[in-house]
Design brief:
alpha/beta; Rossmann fold; 8-stranded mixed sheet; about 30% helix
Length: about 280
Amino acid sequence: MGTTEHIKELVKQKYSEIALQDKETNQSSCCGSGCCSTDVYNIMSDDYSTMEGYHPDADLGLGCGLPTQFAKIKKGDTVIDLGSGAGNDCFVARNETGDDGRVIGIDFTPEMIKKAKANAQKAGFVNVEFRLGDIENIPVSANMADVIVSNCVLNLVPNKDKVFREIFRVLKQGGHFSISDVVLTGNLPKALRTEAEMYAGCVAGAIQKDIYLELIRSNGFSNIAIQKEKPINIPDDILKNYLNEAELENFKSGDTGIFSVTVYAEKPKSCGCGTGCCH
């Protein structure tokens, strides 16, 4: 796949292209001649349209869950969305925080930030802001957020351990996160693990479910719970672009599972380190 910087660059390029398209174009884009499935980064999205605060212009159909639905956001909370895209989860979160709350979206794609700011301005939201930045180095101060949400983004980041360390740093003591992401059981075929399109589509960058949960534990979080889990089935017409017939049959009959999970965890109110927390 290449170096960390190469991976980040290919993800940034793909999502820059997506930012310049509307949802309908993204969802109707084809993965090859004659296929009828959408691109791999669209096949796992959930329906936001019934959620309070939903703004269609901010929904590019790129998520794999509904983290804000499970995030226990209260009036007046400060919420940070990691990988905020065009602002979809930020605007749903803003509906929960109300006028007294604050929502900050972080994204490392300039085109996404531009689109999100335009959507916020159009909606007249003065307590929603968007910052350009890498979620391995979240551009906010420590102990700021009551709640952190993220939707199908951590799987795109090479150093997931560093992201969880940053989430711990940014959350207030007693704060929590609700994150939707893609995880694996079993092993992906090599052709899928090394394919750039599969990485940008949130599959090749996914890690084992038990390793993912252990990263959360090892970074000091408590009360870890899976709020929702669903299998992701990649259509054959997409898989055939990367696997021959024998490989496809082995993959479908094997023990590999691809799942969307929404995970909840808390930063303890006291970390046993005297004043403040260890991280």
